[in-house]
């Protein structure tokens, strides 16, 4: 009986390790998209004219993310659309939009340590602090982002809510 329990526990441990997403890989981005959709501060406060409707007439905005140590080639993206006045994450995963519109889209990257700080909401690591101190490298419409700084804080907290392993870079 004991060997069977040990074998079962070992199998569970292996399956858990295999299923853990690498931080900011395509699986992590998919999970971050789902987390976005279950966060009212993002869906409600960024919906409509507040943010999501500014999409250059394409029907979506793009947020691309990566970890500094892994480089820009490891970017993932979230595609956000304005649906019924709510900011809905339609897709999270591999980059499908190689060209970003700097008037409506965002590119963000940081060190693993700074992503962890932002994900915990630690002092100085909220949206304003992260942008002002350079912890979060940011390209995109800064004035628009500053106008929705509260929900942007909620977005950065996704880095801490969606688990991911930082021991390796996305493949």
How does this structure look, described?
The protein is of the alpha+beta class and 171 residues long. Helices cover 40% and strands 19% of the residues. It has a five-stranded mixed β-sheet. Strand 1 and strand 2 (76-83) form a beta hairpin. It is globular. Mean pLDDT is 90; it is low at 1-18.
Helix amount: 40-55%
Uncertain segments are 1-18
- Compute the separation of the termini in Å: 40 Å
Within the largest sheet, what's the order of strands? 3-2-1-4-5
How many helices? The count is 7
Q: Which structural class should the secondary elements be placed in?
A: alpha+beta
Summarize the structure.
The longest helix is centred in the first third of the chain and has 18 residues, at 2-19.
Name a few traits of the molecule.
171 residues, 40% helix, single chain, 7 helices, disordered N terminus, 5-stranded mixed beta sheet, 19% strand, globular, 5 strands, alpha+beta
Task: List strands and helices in order, with pairings.
Elements: H1 2-19, H2 26-37, H3 40-43, E1 61-67, E2 76-83, E3 86-94, E4 106-110, H4 112-120, H5 127-133, E5 137-139, H6 142-147, H7 149-161
